[in-house]
Amino acid sequence: MPEGIIIKALSGYYYVKPLREGLIATEEEAVQCRGRGILKKKGIAPLVGDRIKYVLTENGEGMVDELLPRESELIRPQVANVKLAVLLFSVREPDMNLNLLDKFLVHIEHSGLETLIVLTKQDLADDEGEATALVKALYERIGYEVMVTSSLTGSGSDELRNRLAGMISVFSGQSGVGKSTLLNRLVPGLELETGEISLRLGRGRHTTRHVELMDIGNGGFVADTPGFSQLDFLELGVEELSTCFREFASYAERCKFRGCSHLHEPGCHVIQAVNTGEIAGSRYDHYKLFYNEMKDKKRRY
Ligand SMILES: Nc1nc2c(ncn2[C@@H]2O[C@H](COP(=O)(O)OP(=O)(O)O)[C@@H](O)[C@H]2O)c(=O)[nH]1
Ligand SMILES: [Mg+2]
Ligand SMILES: [Zn+2]
After folding, report:
1. Taking the model in full, what pTM does it have?
2. In the Cβ-directed half-sphere of 218, how many Cα atoms lie within 13 Å?
3. Residues enclosing ligand 1, CB less than 6 A?
4. N or C: which terminus of the chain carries fewer CB neighbours within 10 A?
């Protein structure tokens, strides 16, 4: 029985890309499949990202027969077997937003995904890349992987293509940072809509979009999603927040008080590390900001 990966689920159909080995897709088009009744009976709901076995039925359609073991399930977007979260932030247009970057990182620390930060539109840097280099250094020092790209010059795209091989990734970032343009760069012939076009079509932020995986070759599949989640912190306890700032950990364990909030307590080693510059001021400021945001929300709900 042939194996495939579900790249789209819509109106009761699964669109299955035939696989050759591992996640390497064949040249064949996706097969439109129904799910076998027995799956439903057993309460098995196949998801985008699932690897499955299928049989071909008449008129070129197919039937999903068996689900291969699922390694993980992301809730928003709902995709199975995602390995890597790619966070895209543009150097300019829109301006680099470290507040939002840190917010994404807090959420990802919780999800168990690997993280890759991609700084896009490097060609628009007006200071010979100095500011970008500082951001890159800041996050690399914390232990995050950072790449810098420009879809205009094509720099960084080979490196990124190699990094995405053999796994399912989720692309995430504000509208306009260049996600679609970069994917078009990575995959010749892809031709996703970019900036101006979607504006002309008047796509509002209330448009619901289904998730779809794109085959980018070499066993890489990418979901280009509008947002990672609501980013509203509602699912996160305020006492867990500091653990989502991974560079705080080695200092936090030496704080004088157990359950130290790292905001004002005496003998707080996190605050000391901020004062000596071992922890970046911007990271700590965002920690305080999110902390207060979470407290406010709790009060309102
Ligand atoms: N100068 C420059 N412009 C870019 C680059 N990448 C994307 N853009 C432009 O930024 C706008 C938004 O890009 P798009 O890919 O639609 O962003 P998305 O909303 O994240 O998918 C478009 O006008 C692109 O032409 C880049 O690397 N350099
Ligand atoms: Mg786009
Ligand atoms: Zn502390």
Report:
1. 0.93
2. 10
3. 120-121, 123-124, 150-152, 173, 175-181, 194-196
4. C
